[in-house]
Design brief:
Layout lengths: L3 H14 L9 H7 L1 H20 L6 E4 L15 E4 L7 H24 L5 H4 L5 H10 L10 H10 L2
Parallel strand pairs: 1-2
Helix pairs in contact: 1-4, 2-3
Length: about 160
């Protein structure tokens, strides 16, 4: 909901004032687990990083959504509360959302340098018209999820 400039400013303030952890799940794991499973794993990795950053663990994890990783990821070990629309209701969730979005956007800008045809510096990897046209013209990169429907369709056409 924030403009890119406002989000960048907020990220700088959050990084100065808060301890945090970021969890990154790579494309192969996303394809293996699916988006939901990868999201649950990323939350687990982020909590592990947070615990390391603060030298302990928080009493409770606040999760944006209606499900928590509890019982879904073997490494999840913290009490958690799911909050639908949590990024607009809880400052900690909103801050985490900003940190995650800015981190991912930087990854996509770096990926755009390696794979300039896809416009990732502009579309951040989402299925924009530009991205989908480049995918049809140049094919998928190692960074494309094979489970992403347009990639899966292209690969089916190539192997047909």
């Amino acid at each position: 909901m924030l403009s890119p400039a406002a989000r960048a400013e907020a990220e700088a303030r959050i990084r100065r004032r808060c301890a945090f952890g970021i969890g990154v799940v790579h494309v192969e794991e996303i394809d293996r687990l699916n988006i939901f499973g990868a999201t649950m794993l990323a939350m687990t990795l982020a909590m592990e990083a947070l615990c390391e950053a603060i030298g302990g663990c928080p009493d409770e994890a606040l999760i944006d959504g209606n499900l928590t990783p509890h019982g879904r990821v073997p490494g999840w070990r913290w009490p958690a509360r799911a909050i639908v629309g949590g990024d607009g209701k809880e400052l900690a969730i909103g801050a985490a959302s900003i940190l995650a979005k800015e981190y991912r956007d930087r990854l996509m800008i770096e990926a755009a340098r390696q794979h300039p045809h896809y416009g990732w510096e502009r579309n951040k990897g989402y299925g924009s018209k530009e991205h989908l046209a480049a995918l049809r013209m140049h094919g998928p990169t190692p960074l494309h999820r094979r489970s992403f429907a347009p990639v899966a369709q292209l690969e089916m056409q190539l192997h047909a």
